[in-house]
């Protein structure tokens, strides 16, 4: 009986703690200037036992010093990830707004939620 009471009390507290931690991490906002070295969109296709498939995408942006993702964020009310991603060009210098933290051991990346990019200068001008 005591174990059931403890379970009823502990589980909701754990859920609230996890949601609070997720909110605190994702609502951390900072701005940074980056030079885009590359970008790619990774696709993951999965199927269940009924052969129904689902496809998910993850957009990565590589800079001189870090790797970032561009994805929608419920906590930040950011649902235009593909528009932001399409505006980021390789070689450009971008002033980005980032949410979250980089935790490598958890494979968590900072999320680019806005980007103002200046294209790279064309070579050959004398």
From TrEMBL:
It comes from the Bacteria. This is Uncharacterized protein. The lineage of its organism: Bacteria, Pseudomonadati, Pseudomonadota, Alphaproteobacteria, Hyphomicrobiales.
């Amino acid at each position: 009986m005591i174990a059931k009471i403890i379970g009823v009390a502990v589980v909701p507290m754990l859920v609230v703690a996890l949601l609070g931690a997720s909110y605190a991490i994702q609502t951390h906002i900072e701005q940074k200037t980056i030079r885009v070295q590359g970008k790619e969109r990774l696709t993951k296709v999965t199927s269940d036992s009924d052969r129904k498939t689902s496809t998910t995408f993850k957009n990565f942006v590589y800079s001189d010093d870090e790797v970032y993702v561009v994805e929608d964020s419920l906590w930040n009310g950011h649902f235009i990830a593909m528009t932001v991603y399409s505006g980021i060009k390789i070689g450009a210098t971008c002033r980005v707004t980032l949410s979250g933290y980089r935790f490598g051991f958890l494979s968590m990346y900072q999320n680019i939620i806005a980007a103002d990019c200046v294209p790279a200068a064309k070579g050959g001008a004398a």
